[in-house]
TrEMBL record:
Organism: Nonomuraea thailandensis
Highest taxon above the source species: Bacteria
UniProt xrefs under Pfam families: ResB (PF05140)
Protein name, per record: Cytochrome c biogenesis protein
Keywords linked to the UniProt accession: Cytochrome c-type biogenesis, Membrane, Transmembrane, Transmembrane helix
Length: 519
């Protein structure tokens, strides 16, 4: 064998980077502090679209409006799951990665901290003058007396032959560890709320009631572990709803206060109690909260069909078209009218005033001169019995609307109806009467069992991060020999040397003070 072949055979071989090594690298990268901070930042950044883009679970009407006004934009929002940010796949992925990263950070940190607690302070160095902080003085102070004084200053103390070693600041590591545990607790609390909590939206008109059942909600979003039996069995009746508006000045028409008066029964057997529901002052029953999130008008109509029978009578919630004046669009469907079904497109004006062109508009959001403007009346099959779901705010789908027979349109429409007035339909098909005005409110129900645990974990995180930032690890060493005492000190926290100088000076003063009996 030649020398070259021998050297080639004895040369070190390059180690392979197999699957196990890649997995180890991935785990170390995921559980590093840098990765955890990046994931936490991404979680906060991912929450921003949830505040800027309307969410289906909270504002379904605004989502529908985006689809109407900008279909292409709405389609992209839907593809990116921006209408459902907090239940989206990408948000859940960041959430779970952060959860795993925190667990991977906490386990080794806990093991390291336990070892630190069990480890005694090291023996004092022989030359204390080389430490960042040092001092010496003449005294007959003994080892036991120095140890006693340092214990009084809450140091952990170890003594030896002519020396004392003391350490302090373990709360810094406790704060750091508890901060990570608190972050993990927040994630667990949020996850528990998603599994065992629920949310819902409901519209209630004055005089109507609500019972906390799945069927009573307009939109219900349960957690994976929620069933119909999980809901708290309370109910209430909306007695009255009031809105106070600014009546003069630059902010005329601005809402000042909202107040809904409820009769609440906490259980089916309990007596009703009065409750005033306001914005940011939710009704709470057994952990379930109901927030007031919207309001509008529900004019009351009475429709008599062509055979003289009352085919419809009751309030109709109207969709707000102009928030400043509360001008609202209303749809009345009468599928039981005879000899043909009837439908009406109406506009409610809370404070109706005539315009110069003969039209009418609302000048104030309050109910000062309520009138209903007739936009259109139709007869024919509305398609409500086709089995396909329909919106209560739309008369019919476009293809169905084309087949309806217009009875009143445009110039043939009468003047706006005031309360108590009616409009006769042509060909003896019936009559529409405007009989009164009620108001409606929209409520958001929220039951989140993780709410208080998340609050406790958040408070713990604040206290823990304060401890980790304000407290520093430091060591103090004392050597006693032949009437002379040497003291040295150093910090174990980077950047805290300046703050330790004053404390070290105080420690030296305590040690050099008059002798005391050791007790």
């Amino acid at each position: 064998m030649s020398v070259q072949e021998l050297e080639k055979e004895q040369a070190p071989k390059q180690a392979g980077f197999g699957l196990v090594a890649w997995l180890r690298w991935a785990w170390r990268t995921l559980t590093s502090m840098k990765t955890a901070l990046i994931l936490l930042f991404l979680l906060a950044l991912g929450s921003v679209p949830g505040s800027l883009v309307p969410q289906r679970s909270v504002e379904p009407d605004k989502v529908a409006r985006i689809y109407e006004q900008s279909p292409a934009l709405a389609e992209w929002y839907d593809r990116l799951q921006l209408f459902e940010v907090f239940s989206s796949t990408w948000f859940a992925a960041v959430y779970l990665l952060l959860f795993t990263s925190l667990i991977g950070c906490i386990i080794p940190r806990t093991a390291t901290f336990v070892r630190e607690l069990r480890r005694k302070p090291p023996a004092a160095p022989k030359n204390l003058s080389r430490l960042p902080h040092s001092a010496s003085f003449e005294s007959d102070l003994g080892v036991s007396q120095a140890a006693w004084k340092l214990r009084r200053l809450r140091f952990r103390v170890v003594t030896g032959d002519g020396w004392v070693s003391a350490e302090k600041g373990y709360l810094r590591e406790i704060g750091n560890l508890f901060f990570h545990v608190a972050l993990l607790g927040i994630l667990v609390a949020i996850g528990a709320g998603s599994l065992f909590g629920y949310r819902g939206n409901v519209l209630v008109v004055e005089g109507d009631g609500f019972a906390n059942t799945v069927a009573a909600y307009d939109r219900f979003m349960p957690g994976n572990q929620v069933s119909a039996e999980s809901l708290q069995p309370f109910s209430f009746t909306l007695s009255e709803f009031k809105v106070a508006y600014q009546i003069a000045g630059d902010k005329r028409g601005q809402a000042l206060d909202y107040s809904a008066h409820l009769k609440v029964s906490d259980t089916p057997a309990s007596p009703a109690r009065d409750y005033e529901l306001k914005v940011n002052e939710p009704l709470e029953v057994d952990g379930t909260q109901m927030y007031l999130i919207g309001n509008g008008y529900a004019p009351v109509f009475k429709v008599t069909d062509g055979k003289g029978q009352v085919a419809f009578e009751g309030p109709v919630p109207c969709l707000i078209e102009q928030k400043a004046t509360m001008t609202s669009g209303c749809v009345v469907k009468v599928p039981d009218a005879q000899p043909s079904q009837l439908g009406f497109l109406l506009q409610f004006l809370p404070t109706s005033v005539p315009l110069t062109d003969g039209d009418h508009a609302s000048a104030f959001p309050g109910e000062l001169n309520p009138e209903v403007k007739i936009l259109g009346a139709f007869s024919g099959d509305l398609g409500v019995r086709s089995g396909r779901p329909q919106s209560v705010y739309e008369l019919a789908e476009p293809e169905v609307l084309k087949k309806l027979k217009p009875l009143v349109m445009g110039s043939s429409a009468p003047k706006p109806l005031a309360v108590g007035q009616s409009m006769e339909l042509p060909d003896g098909l019936g009559r529409l009467e405007f009989t009164g005005v009620k108001e409606w409110i929209t409520l958001q129900t929220s039951y989140d069992p993780g709410r208080f645990p998340a609050l406790a974990a958040g408070a713990t995180a604040v206290v823990a991060i304060a401890l980790s930032l304000m407290i520093r690890r430091r060591r103090v060493f004392v050597r006693v020999s032949e009437g002379r005492v040497e003291v040295g000190g150093l910090t174990r926290t980077e950047g805290s040397a300046a703050g330790f100088a004053e404390e070290f000076s105080d420690i030296v003063k305590v040690l050099s003070a008059g002798e005391k009996d050791v007790r």
